[in-house]
Design a protein that fits this description.
It is found in: Cell inner membrane. This is Fructose-specific PTS system IIC-like component. It holds the Pfam family PTS_EIIC. This protein is of the alpha/beta class and about 475 residues long. The chain folds into three domains: about 120 residues, Response regulator (Rossmann fold); about 170 residues, no CATH class; about 180 residues, no CATH class. It is about 65% helix and about 10% strand. The chain contains 20 helices and eight strands. The strands form two sheets. It has a six-stranded mixed beta sheet with strand order 3-2-1-4-5-6. Strands 7-8 form a two-stranded antiparallel sheet. Helix 9 packs antiparallel against helix 10, helix 13 packs antiparallel against helix 14 and helix 15 runs antiparallel to helix 17.
Length: about 475
Amino acid sequence: MTRIVAVTNCPAGIAHTYMVAEKIADESKKRGFEVHVETQGASGIENRLTSQQIAEADYVILALGKGITDEDKDRFNGKKVVEIPVSEALRNIPKIMDNLESEAKLFSSSKIKLGDKQEAVQNGLISHLMAGVSAALPFVIAGGLCMALGSIMAQFGMPNVAPKNGNIGSIAWALNELGSLGFTFMVPIMGANIAFSIGDKPAYAPAFICSLLANSPDLFGKKTGAGFIGAVLLGLAIGYFIKWFKTIKVGKTFQSTMGFLVIPFVTLLIFGLFTWWLVAPFASLLMGILLNFLNTIPPSLKLVGGFVVGAMLAFDMGGPINKAAWFFAFSLIGSHVYSWYGVVGVVTTLPPVAVAIACWIKPSLFTKQERAAALPALLVGATVATEPAIPYALAAPLPMISANTLAGAITGALTMLLGVDRIAPGINVLDPILGLVHPWYNFYICLTIGLVLNVLFIIVFKSIWIKKQKEKTIAGK
């Protein structure tokens, strides 16, 4: 019996990670292979591969969107490894399974750098940025929910009192403070994990401390901290600096102390002073200019911006274009600019929910398998992620992507027009109920109009596409 072990991950760690894991498991079982899949998602490492499972495996499949650590690489030393970008894995796993022996390459952790085939994906800018966002998400989600709960309590008449004269304060105040801390640490966590994605563990502490320093505007006499701009600049700079630093050959005497002592200390010394002297003032200046622009932008340009961001979010459903727009909107939350993330909250829900509804309204346009996946697509799309719409787009790229992009663009502009603000990520369609979206009624108006448009476009565009395909088939005969 062929034995396979696999690792899957993606920048956000939400949808692709688990969808590809399921695909590998299902395809292996169809072929009678023994399979064990480790997922490295937003919840951490699940179903961690044991040393025995790896040792007994004939092949290792790595479906990666953000690379793996040096410690992970050591686990697969001497194994036959097949590596594939996670974004391609959904459609390529059957082909990979057909050609395991020819596709696999013997991996030696001491001589070969894992990831040559995936270099651009693993080490791409968006991948590193999304690694930072993925780590920051729990801080913002938990913090946002705490703040929302505290605000709801205050609205219902509960006291919102800070500690004073030995009094510990009220629960509503405590919840608001906890939420505020989540937002405060969002930026340094983002910077630290961007650096970690590039330079591994030695990069974490220096990037965290420098990003936190850069977001203390009182130290620099500025009105605003460096925000996500500072986190990105410092995370990338420190990450690549440490990646280079680790290539320096040192004697055995210092080798054991390099990772936890020498590299972090030298990096913090250099970049800490550099941050204080140049990066924080410069980045805070840029952040101030950006925030001023976003807060004073004419309504007409806001509509154009919402149209563009909405189109980007819906275009590749969790791919690099979607992630770029998502990162821009999410990063502004820490600076209390919420309207762009309002577009995210509405538009990312549209493609999977719309295609599920289209399956029920016009089932003849979809295969039996697509119709069976409609309910899961709706549930996941409505509460978690856009990715369940991907299989439908792969089956009919032109009509599905066109429908999603056009509907997303129009809805993005409408969301901006109606001033929908989303203060933190939550459970998508339930966010207004949780107090994370304001005004709640405009959110549902935009969502309803967007779904009607998206479903209509899917039905019209795919009907035309299927008709053209049939005509081509008949002409070919």
